[in-house]
Amino acid sequence: MSVSVYEKGDYxxxxxxxxxxxxxxxxxxTVTVKFTKPGGTVLTYTYAATQITRTATGVFHxxxxxxxxxxxxxxxxxxxxxxxxxxGEFFVSAPGA
Length: 97
Hints:
The chain is an all-beta fold. It has strands at residues 4-7, 11-17, 30-36, 42-46, 53-56, 59-65, 70-79, 84-93. It has one domain: Immunoglobulin-like. Helix content is 0%, strand content 56%.
């Protein structure tokens, strides 16, 4: 699997789809996304606090400003009707690198 690379200063949309056991798009009871920046700072956002956008049933996104160079990790977490954790990573390079 290849890791996406973005440039410092980019503003990117990260999304997730949540499906029930039958494969149908379903809203979890709670939706959280956590970004771990290269320096170790963890940013936590929730749908309940309107920090995450619901595009359609089971489809959510968060737009994030990429302000630190290095490897970023993220986790989308759904609880309740859809209990799922989706982890990923991407890399942020210096401008013009």
